[in-house]
Specification:
The protein is α/β, with parallel strands linked by helices and 245 residues long. The chain folds into 2 domains: 2-113, no CATH class; 126-241, 3-Layer(aba) Sandwich (Rossmann fold). The chain has helices at 9-14, 16-28, 44-48, 56-66, 77-86, 93-102, 106-113, 133-138, 154-159, 183-186, 188-204, 215-228, 237-241, and strands at 2-5, 32-34, 71-74, 103-105, 126-129, 166-168, 209-212, 233-236. The mean pLDDT is 95.
């Protein structure tokens, strides 16, 4: 199958190793991966701040770059959800609709499309799993405690295939870390307090790493950890799933 790799702008600029790990992992699993070179921001920052009309150029560019692929995969639940729910192109409405239908977050693609049952990966560390809001509540990558439905987690399902990993969860397993995109800029104090609460619960579990499917959330937590002088590190789930035996 032909897969187009969608790498969000903040990953491209600050965490390129996440994009590389995603590419290598998909190729290991037999995908024919392409990386459209003219891709840019998906437009989520503008839309989240109330300026959706300013993202039309991003939409048109996204459609131009990602049309014609069987699947589009990204290591970011928030950007994927934005594309799924908001991508529009007046000049090419059918192409935009097809993209919205075929864009997937990485763990969603691995479990639902590739139906991965085993991985040749090893990560001998204790890892605290963070559920990002967009992935959990928007893409339904994991169950929500308030719905009282059977428990499931696509990221956890994949991490359990990794040799020697020790997984842990915070007490409030599906609570927001406080990043929220532009929220962390406009409501800095609230955002930081929420992040500190998340970090404290992982710290209590004595984890080596905090991992998840959204680098944006991990970036927020990483900043708090560094300011606290913590030894805990953050790592995207793609880097763990791509780790070598």
């Amino acid at each position: 199958m032909q897969v187009a790799l969608f790498i969000p702008c903040y990953i491209d600029q600050f965490y390129p190793q996440v994009g590389i790990a995603t590419l290598q992992l998909l190729e290991k699993l037999g995908c024919d991966v392409s990386f459209p070179l003219e891709q840019t921001c998906c437009g989520q920052p503008m839309a989240n701040s109330g300026f959706a009309s300013l993202s039309k150029g991003c939409d048109a560019n996204f459609v131009e770059n990602f049309s014609g692929f069987d699947y589009i995969v990204a290591p970011s639940g928030s950007c994927v959800l934005h594309v799924k729910e908001h991508l529009q192109d007046a000049a090419h409405p059918e192409k935009a609709a097809n993209i919205r239908k075929n864009v997937y977050e990485l763990t969603e693609f691995l479990t639902d499309v590739l139906k991965v049952e085993k991985l040749q990966a090893r990560f001998p560390f204790k890892v605290g799993l963070h559920n990002s809001c967009h992935g959990q509540r928007g893409l339904h990558l994991s169950s929500m405690t308030e719905t009282m439905t059977p428990s499931f987690s696509k990221p956890e399902q994949l991490l359990n295939m990794v040799t020697d990993i020790r997984l842990s969860k915070p007490k409030r397993n599906d609570e927001c870390c406080g990043f929220g995109g532009t929220f962390c800029v406009f409501e800095e104090a609230v955002s930081v307090k929420m992040g500190k609460d998340r970090v404290a619960e992982h710290d209590d579990n004595e984890v080596d790493y905090i991992s998840g499917g959204d680098t944006s959330c991990l970036m927020h937590l990483e900043g708090i950890l560094k300011r606290q002088g913590s030894k805990i590190k953050t790592i995207h789930i793609a880097e763990i799933l791509n780790s070598s035996l």
